[in-house]
Write a structure and sequence with these properties.
The protein contains 18 helices and 13 strands. It is an alpha/beta fold. It folds into two domains: 222 residues, Rossmann fold; 191 residues, Glycogen Phosphorylase B (Rossmann fold, 3-Layer(aba) Sandwich), CATH 3.40.50.2000. Helix 1 packs across helix 18, helix 4 packs antiparallel against helix 6 and helix 7 packs antiparallel against helix 16.
C-alpha cells in the first residue's frame, strides 16, 4: 500500500455524518472515497458533492432491496472456496438481521434469502470492481445492507474496520472484524486521563454491591422510557414512505427516508402507505405474537432458584448488534446456549435471565426472538429461566461463573471479584477475571485460575485506554448517552476523535 498513490476506501456512515467529517481528514493522506453507504440527506449530500467519482448507496433503499434494480451492473466472479464457511455465516447473520423489517410477519425466509444473495452479489462485485483497499463503518454493521457490504469486503480479503463504543466512558475503538483484534492507538490526550478517572469511579461503585448504582445508564433509560410509554395513551400512526422506484440510481441519494419494513408480498413495489386493513392485520398479528411470547415465557419460569452450583447467563435484547454481529461465533442465542450447556459440567445448573426490554411493549423484541425459544430452554438439562426482576448482583455473587455474549455483566462480575466467560468480544475483555471462549480453556481451568483484585482490573483497563481507545464517540446515541452522564463537553470533541483515528490508521500501516 505504501507504493500506491491513491487508497480506495469505502464508508458506512451514520445519521450525524461522522464518516463524512473523517473522510475530509483522510483526503490529506490520499484516501479517496469510492463507495459510500449513507442516510438520506444531511452530510451524505455534502459527501456526494465533494466526491463525484464515488458511488453512493442509500441506507434505507438498499435494506429494502434496491440491489435488485442493478442486475446489469452485477458481474460477480467465483468466491474463493476456502471462504465457504465465512460466506454461510454471513448469510445467516444477514437473514437474522431482517427480523427488524418484519413487523407484519410478511417477510418469509424465501424472500430474505433472495434479498441476501442480491445484496451480496451487488456489493461483492462492486468492491472488486472499485479495487477497494479498506472499508470503515461508523458502527458494527447490524442491518442487512450494511452487513452484506461489510461481509463482502471480508470475503474479498479487504481490510475491514468498524467503530465500537463504550457505554461506561466516552471512548471508542476500531475493531478488525468481530473478534478481539483492535487497532493500536496513540496514548496522548488529557481526555484519556479523565476517562481513567471515570473508570476508577465506576469500578469503585461495585464495592457497595447495590445494583441501582452500577446498573448501566442505557438500561435505566430504557426502563424509564418504557414506563412512560405504558402510562401514556399511545396512538399509532401509519408511516407514509416514498416509492422505492423513485430516484433509485445508486449515485443519487434521495431527500427523504423510506421505510425499510416489509409489509407486502412484493416488497420492491409496495404502495407508499399501508392500507388500513393490512395495517390492522399487522397490529393484531403483533399483539398475538406478544401474548404468546408472554405466555410461553411465564410457563418456562421457575418460582425459585434451584439448589446447588450454577452458572449465570443473562440474555441480550434482540434484534440488536450486541449479539449479532458483536457476539462473534456465538451471535446466535441458540448456539450460545447450546455451547454453554456443552461446556459447563452437566451437574452444574445454568440460570438464564431474560433481558428486561425483550418483553417490553415499547421495544420490538417480539420480532427478535421466537416465543418457542422459551420451550427450547426447558428442553435443556439443568437449564432454568428465572424472572427478569431477580437481583442480578445476587445472581452474580452466588454464581460460580457469569457468562454473556458481549454484555457488561461480565465486567460487573469481574469487579465484584467473580469470574466470567465472554463468548464474543467487547472492550473490557482485557480484564483478568474475564475469560474468552476463544482461549479454549476448560471449565476446571477457569475455576482454578486466580482472582484479580480491583487494582489489577483498573490497571488492565488503563492499559486499554492508553493503547486502543479513541477519544469520544461516533454515533449519536452514544454521544447523547455520555453527554447526559458526564456533562463534560471536552470528552466529545470530534476533531480529536478524527485525530486519533488518523493516527491509528497510520500506526497500523493502513494509510
Amino acid at each position: 500500500m505504501e507504493n500506491q498513490s491513491v487508497i480506495n476506501a469505502g464508508f458506512i456512515d451514520v445519521m450525524r455524518g461522522s464518516m463524512y467529517k473523517l473522510s475530509r481528514q483522510l483526503i490529506k493522506y490520499n484516501v479517496q472515497p469510492v463507495m459510500w453507504m449513507g442516510y438520506s440527506g444531511g452530510k451524505t449530500k455534502l459527501a456526494r458533492n465533494d466526491y463525484p467519482n464515488c458511488e453512493f448507496y442509500d441506507y434505507w433503499r438498499f435494506n429494502k432491496g434496491a440491489s435488485f434494480l442493478f442486475e446489469d451492473e452485477i458481474k460477480i466472479g467465483r468466491i474463493p472456496r476456502y471462504k465457504r464457511a465465512e460466506f454461510l455465516e454471513l448469510k445467516e447473520k444477514v437473514i437474522k438481521m431482517m427480523d427488524r423489517q418484519d413487523d407484519h410477519g410478511a417477510f418469509r425466509y424465501q424472500e430474505r434469502e433472495a434479498l441476501f444473495y442480491s445484496l451480496f452479489s451487488f456489493f461483492y462485485s462492486k468492491v472488486i470492481q472499485k479495487k477497494l483497499d479498506f472499508i470503515i463503518s461508523a458502527h458494527s454493521p447490524h442491518l442487512p445492507a450494511t452487513m452484506a457490504f461489510y461481509g463482502a469486503c471480508q470475503i474479498a480479503g479487504i481490510e475491514t474496520l468498524h467503530f465500537r463504543e463504550s457505554a461506561v466512558v466516552p471512548l471508542s475503538y476500531l475493531s478488525r472484524g468481530f473478534g478481539s483484534e483492535w487497532l493500536k492507538t496513540s496514548q496522548t490526550g488529557v481526555e484519556k486521563k479523565r476517562c481513567k478517572e471515570l473508570l476508577n469511579s465506576y469500578i469503585d461503585s461495585f464495592g457497595e454491591g447495590n445494583y441501582a448504582d452500577i446498573e448501566p445508564d442505557y438500561m435505566k433509560a430504557q426502563k424509564k422510557s418504557n414506563e412512560i410509554f405504558l402510562q401514556e395513551n399511545v396512538s399509532i400512526e401509519r408511516r407514509v414512505s416514498q416509492e422505492l422506484w423513485e430516484s433509485v440510481d445508486a449515485s443519487k441519494v434521495p431527500d427523504k427516508k423510506i421505510s425499510y419494513r416489509v409489509t407486502a408480498a412484493d416488497f420492491l413495489s409496495e404502495t407508499p402507505s399501508v392500507s388500513i386493513d393490512n395495517f390492522r392485520d399487522g397490529l393484531e398479528y403483533k399483539a398475538a405474537l406478544r401474548e404468546l411470547q408472554h405466555d410461553l415465557y411465564n410457563n418456562a419460569l421457575v418460582s425459585g432458584l434451584p439448589e446447588g452450583r450454577y452458572v449465570y447467563f443473562p440474555l441480550h435484547y434482540e434484534p440488536e448488534k450486541t449479539s449479532n454481529p458483536d457476539g462473534g461465533a456465538y451471535y446466535n442465542i441458540y448456539d450460545a446456549l447450546l455451547y454453554l450447556r456443552s461446556y459447563v459440567p452437566p451437574d452444574i445448573n445454568i440460570i438464564v435471565k431474560e433481558h428486561y426490554t425483550q418483553l417490553s411493549k415499547k421495544y420490538r423484541g417480539v420480532f427478535g426472538r421466537s416465543h418457542y425459544f422459551y420451550r427450547y430452554i426447558q428442553s435443556l438439562a439443568n437449564v432454568y429461566l428465572v424472572p427478569d426482576n431477580v437481583d442480578p448482583v445476587k445472581l452474580i455473587k452466588n454464581a460460580e461463573l457469569t457468562c454473556s455474549q458481549t454484555g457488561t455483566s461480565c465486567l460487573e462480575a469481574a469487579c465484584l471479584g467473580k469470574k466470567s466467560l465472554m463468548l464474543g468480544s467487547n472492550w473490557f475483555d482485557v480484564v483478568p477475571n474475564i475469560f474468552s471462549a476463544e482461549d479454549d480453556l476448560s471449565y476446571q481451568e477457569i475455576m482454578e485460575a486466580d482472582i484479580a483484585d480491583v487494582e489489577i482490573i483498573k490497571d488492565s483497563l488503563h492499559d486499554w485506554v492508553d493503547n486502543y481507545s479513541i477519544r469520544g464517540c461516533v454515533t449519536g446515541s452514544f454521544v447523547r448517552l455520555h453527554q447526559n452522564m458526564f456533562k463534560e463537553e471536552s470528552l466529545q470533541d470530534f476533531k480529536k476523535t478524527c485525530q486519533d483515528v488518523v493516527e491509528a490508521l497510520k500506526m497500523n500501516s493502513i494509510i
